Every structure is written in C-alpha cells, then in structure tokens.
Amino acid sequence: MDKKFYVYILLTEKNTYYCGYTDNVEKRFKAHVEGHGAKYTKACKPVKLLWTKEFNSKQEAMKEEYRIKRLTRFQKEALVNNLPN
User: What is the rounded CA–CA span in Å between residue 85 and residue 76?
Assistant: First the structure.
C-alpha cells in the first residue's frame, strides 16, 4: 500500500490561514494545537481544520503547498469554499 500525503489549510484564532503538508492530518493538527507544529501556529493557535487534499507523493503535496502559500487570502477562501478563484 502506497503512502498518501495531504495538503491542509487551518484557520487560526487570529482569523488567518495556515497551509502545510503531512502524511497524517489528525496527528499534525494535534501537534499544531499543542504548539509543536510550526513556528507560525505556535504564535497563532489553530482552531479548525478547513480543507484537505490527498496526494500520491510527497513531492506533489509539497508543490501544491507551495502554490497555495502564494495565493491571496481571497483565493484561499475560494479554495476552502470550493469556489472558482
């Protein structure tokens, strides 16, 4: 069985978005909540997992994470709400 990777978007307590990738969304979200996930989410605690997308390789997930991080907030909102951006 091939390992899956995921790109995700979190909503933080400061009403900002955080995007990342992982091979275990639940474990990674828990790490973010506990302040161990990333420098950004240590300062801006996540409150909700908004969106995830599955990939067959780490490289594909990393490429999508990079693309999403370059989007505007408006474009990220459209992605989260499954709207064309």
Answer: 8
